[in-house]
Please model this.
Amino acid sequence: MGFARQVLVVTAKDLRAEIRTKEAINASAAFALVILLLFSFAFDLDPDTNREIASGLLWLVFAFAGTLLLNRSFARELPNDCLDALVAAPVPASALFLGKSLANYVLLFAIEMLSLVVFGIFYNVRWTAQFAELMLVLALGTWALTIMGTIFSALTVNIRLREVMLPILIYPFLVPALMGAIQLTLGLMQGKPIGPENVSWLPMLIGFDVIYTAISMVLVETVLVG
Amino acid sequence: MRNKILYLLGTAAILILARNIYVISGLPGEEDQGAIFKIIFFHVPLAITALTCGTVACAASILFLVKKDFRYDALAVSVTEVGLAFLAGNLLTGSIWARIIWGVWWAWDVRLTSALVCWILYASYLMIRRAIEEPTQRATLAAVVSIFAFIDVPIVILSIRLFRTQHPGPVFFSSTGSFPHDWSMIMLWNLIAMFMLGAVFTMIRLGQEEAHREIEALRREAHAF
Model:
C-alpha cells in the first residue's frame, strides 16, 4: 500500500466511525450554535457592529468547537485498545496522523460551514460577498487548527485531565494562525477583497501550516510510540 | 566541587550586580524620561537570558529524544523554569516602566504580546509535565512540546510584528541608538551577571531534579520488594 492510500484508508475509517456514532460532531455542532447564541447577548447587535465583530467571533467559535471535535480524535481509539492496534498496524505513524488530520479537517470544515450559515441568518451578515477568498482563508486557517489539534490530541490522549489540557496547550500555539485568519476574514466579512493592508498574513498562514505539518509528521512517531 | 563552583558563581554574580547598581544609581536621569529609564539596564538582560534559556531547553529536548538520557530532560525542565522566572522579571520591569512613561501597565504592543505568549507557551510546558506520571512518557511528551514552543517563538514574533508597535527601538550598541558606549558596557556587565545567575539557578534546580529521580527510583525499588 502506498503512503497516500494508507492515509486515505485511515481517513475513511475515521469518517465512517464518526458518521455512525456522530458523538463528536453532534457535540461540536451543538456547542458552536450555543456560543453563537451567547455572543448575541454579549454584544449590542446592529448590522455595522456585526460585520466588525464577525471575523473574531467566528474564529473563536471555530476554535472552541474545534477542540471539542479534536479531543475525540485519538480518545475515540482508547476503548478496546484500538490505539495500540493502530500503532502496531503496518502503517507509519505519519500516515496515521495525516489520515486522522484529514478526517478531522472534513468534519471541522462541515461544522464551520454550518456555523457560517447560522451566523449569516441570525446576525444578518452577508458573508458570501467574497466567497472564493473566504473559502481560501477558511481552508488555510482550518488546516492550522486541525494539524495542531490532532498532534496535541495524540499527545494528551493518555494523560490525566485530557479534556482540559488540550485547549490550554493549543490556544497559545495557535495565536499566530488565529490572528492571521481573523485579520484576513475581517475585510472579507465587510465585502472587501484581500488587499495590500492584510495580504501579508496570507504567506504567514501558509508558512504556519507548512512548518507545523512537517514538524508534526516528524515527531508523531515519538509522541505515539515514545 | 560542584557546590563550590555554585557558590563562587553566585557570589561573583551578586558582586557584579551590586557594583552595577551602584554605578547605575550614579548615572544622571535621561532628558525625557528621568530616572525610570535606568530600568532598561535590567529589562534587556532579563529578556536575553530568558531567550537563551528557551534555546538551551530546545537543544536539551532534542538531545533527550535522540539519546533518551534523563539528564537532558532534567536540564530542559530546570532551564525552562529559570527562563520563565527571568521572562516574568522582564515583563514586570517592562510593566513598571510602561506605567510611568505610557501611563498604562499594559499595551497590546508587538513585543509585550510576543513576550506574554512565549511565557504562556512555556508555562503550558510545565503544566503538561504536571499532568503525566510516568517518567519516560513525561520526558518524551514534554520534549515534543518544548520543540513545538521553540518553533512557535519566531512565528509569534513575526506575526505580531505585522501589527504596529509603540515599543522603543534598540538603544544599545546601535548606530541609531542614543546610548553612550560606556552605558552599553554596563548593560553588558549586567547581562553577564544575569547569565551567571541563570546558570546558578539552573544548576540548583538540576540538583533537585536528580535528587527527585533518585528518590523515585528508591521508592520503586522498595515497592518491588
